[in-house]
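New to this. Look over this protein:
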Amino acid sequence: VAVAASPWNDGAIVASGWYLKTPSGKKITIGNAANIPTQGGFNQESLIALEPGEKLIITTGRSPLGVSFRENICSGYLEQFQDFAPPLDTECPLASYEIWDRNLVGDSECSSFSFSVNRCVAPQGAIPADISLECRVFAQNDLTYNGCVALHQNDRLFFAGAWRFFAGENTELWPNVGGLIRLYDAHGKLVDSFVY
């Protein structure tokens, strides 16, 4: 299920505390999420605040990352070792652009290597033996999810316009036969309903 904030809203809408009622009557409360998640580390959670035009994707099961989170331009790296439904966008910054930030553009072997690396794919075990130490460090540290975040979290277009909330349920919330889903705000006021 996806919920979108109107692009004409004046500001952010806090969705944490809102809840859905499934066709079976089950209540799913939207909790908090990591604004900038860390892979393999502690994730501080905060309120889910949808900026104008942002969407919230609500998934039945548990998060492969272990936490609900806000998507960013580096999130595609998370798809390399985990499966998300729906899949995360894999539009991470190109490795061939990242070498500029590390002043490695004059290193021809590193430049050639950077063009061989696919977007959002950490080059695990595929780093050539003949590249420079600086380039090897760049590949191992920067061409990863956490490395990408460290390089880009202050970029103006860092966030990707979506949040992921995982309900942590073991059984499917949205039966294939269809039904009515209702969305309520934290005060119990009906915000929207939709038939699928």
